[in-house]
Amino acid sequence: MYSELEGRVAVVTGAARGIGRAEALRLARERVRVAVVDLVQEDADETAEEIRQSGGTAEAYSINVMNAQAVMTMMEDAVHRLGPIGILVNNAGITRDNLLFKMSEEDWDAVMGTHLKGSFLCARTAQRYMVEQKWGKIVNTSSTSALGNRGQANYSAAKAGLQGFTRTLAIELGPFNINVNAVAPGFIDTAMTRATAERMGMDPEAFKQAAAKEIPLRRVGVPEDIANVVAFLCSEQASFISGQVLYVRGGPN
Ligand SMILES: NC(=O)c1ccc[n+]([C@@H]2O[C@H](COP(=O)([O-])OP(=O)(O)OC[C@H]3O[C@@H](n4cnc5c(N)ncnc54)[C@H](O)[C@@H]3O)[C@@H](O)[C@H]2O)c1
User: Fold this and answer.
1) Among candidates 43, 52, 9, which has minimal Cα distance to 27?
2) pLDDT over threshold 90, residue 151
3) According to the model, what pLDDT value does residue 3 have?
């Protein structure tokens, strides 16, 4: 537990389910006040309600992270209701997998827009509050797919792009006591990986088991595996770590 985070305010995008939900709940356990951001209000409400039920503080927002105005309005409201933003977890993401020759321009733009533009807009808006406080933590979400993955030219490029984005923000924002890092998850059991299994015509359980066999620790990850690392990266114990990409994949790269 890193209770020195008590009272800090976090924005977690894509927090209605999966990894983002686990991150929001994990930060709330550290007494962080959380803005739960996702596309659909009722879905975001569920995570926020779960946090409130366990004694924490949260507000839910339905916005598309690709919309600059919506990002700005959401953060202004979060500052008003929760306090100045000190933590940003850029987690919202989608996949639109296809082999290159079948990949549409829409599939390319949707993936680039969600991961790269979304992370850019959220970071650009949030940094203002972090610079004012001379304290901030930004965690971006890369992926082992950044190293290359068949059928994911768009996603792989976006996730590799986020690594350069992370290093650059670490250089620019470091002088303001803002740490910027990325987590790069491997196979994590979520709706995203279950959808991948279904698209490949595989039973999600069989897909998971096949993936686990290739992982040195012989299991796939769970959202809490990533949430724990994010909580660590936001803690004072990680205060001299910046510009790093931490692979969380049950083995080496
Ligand atoms: N699951 C994995 O194995 C895995 C591996 C590596 C990286 N990741 C990354 O982790 C992150 C979370 O993945 P997950 O598995 O929890 O996925 P998920 O599909 O379960 O959850 C993603 C969430 O992001 C939200 N979202 C998508 N586009 C959005 C937008 N434009 N604006 C706001 N919210 C939006 C979705 O509504 C959803 O709730 C993603 O960035 C993903 O690329 C996942």
Assistant:
1) 9
2) yes
3) 75
Place of tokens 């809490």: 224
Indicate the range of 1-5, 109-113, 137-141 predicted with least confidence: 1-5
- The boundaries of the domain holding residue 240 are 3-186+223-248
Q: What are the pLDDT digits (tens) for 38-74? A: 999 999 999 999 999 999 999 999 999 999 999 999 9
Residues 149 and 46 in one domain: yes
On the question of pLDDT at 1 being above 70, the answer is no
What is the pLDDT at residue 253? 86
| Residues carrying an active site annotation | 155
Q: Which atom from ligand 1 is nearest to the alpha carbon of 141?
A: 41
- Distance, CA 13 to ligand 1 centroid (Å)? 9
Check whether residue 64 and residue 177 sit in a common domain. yes
* The pair of three-digit structure tokens given for residue 245, joined into one six-digit string: 């990409």
pLDDT band at 93 (very low <50, low <70, confident <90, very high): very high
Both 108 and 197 in one domain: the answer is no
**CATH classification of the domain holding 154:** 3.40.50.720
Expressed in angstroms and rounded, the spacing between residue 193 Cα and the centre of ligand 1 is: 10
Sign of CA dihedral 218, 23, 146, 109: positive
Residues 46 and 98 occupy one common structural domain: yes
Give the strands of the sheet with 178-185, arranged side by side: 58-62, 33-38, 9-13, 85-90, 136-141, 178-185, 245-248
For residues 140 and 213, membership in a common domain is answered with: no
- Compute the distance between CA of residue 193 and CA of residue 143 in angstroms, rounded to an integer: 13
- CB within 6 Å of ligand 1 — which residues? 13-14, 16-20, 38-39, 64-66, 91-94, 114, 118, 141, 143, 185, 187-188, 190-193
Q: How large is the average pLDDT for residues 90-111?
A: 98
